[in-house]
Amino acid sequence: EVQLQASGGGLVQPGGSLRLACVASGFAVNQYSLGWVRQTPGQEREFVAASSWSGTNSYYADSVKGRFTISRDNSNDTLYLQMNSLKPEDTGVYYCNARRLAVDYWGQGTQVTVSS
Question: Which strands form 78-83's sheet, in the order they lie side by side?
Fold first, then answer.
């Protein structure tokens, strides 16, 4: 069974930090690119960051560049997202995604709320 289990969300004040984690299982994780997208109520899902299968290449939305860092540990099939200098507009449900060719896996989300 394919699973992408995200965790690490919560309530944080503006300027604070959170670290999200996503543990993947049930497929050859090290052959897939992994990423994060987020969604707020009434909005479409928005790309946040992605990591190539090897972890060599990382990609970021302009809105998070310089503040967020994506990383992966293929030895334990885990994807991370370090989020610093959080802003209220970073609020949303963050989903973990695995992609390879025409295959796309999604996990359940973890809620991130940035508010004072």
Answer: 3-7, 18-25, 78-83, 68-73
What are the per-10-residue average pLDDT scores of the chain (116 residues)? 96 98 94 96 93 93 98 94 97 96 93 97
Q: Tell me, what's the pLDDT at 95?
A: 97
Tokens of 5: 């289990």
Alpha-carbon gap, residue 7 to 32, rounded angstroms: 20
- Cα 57 to Cα 52: distance, rounded to the nearest angstrom: 5
How big is the chain, counted in residues?
116
* Tokens describing residue 63: 């809105």
Q: Which long-range contacts (CB under 8 A, 24 or more apart) does 60-66 make?
A: 63/89, 64/90
- Cα(49)–Cα(51) distance, integer angstroms: 7
Structure tokens at 7: 């965790």
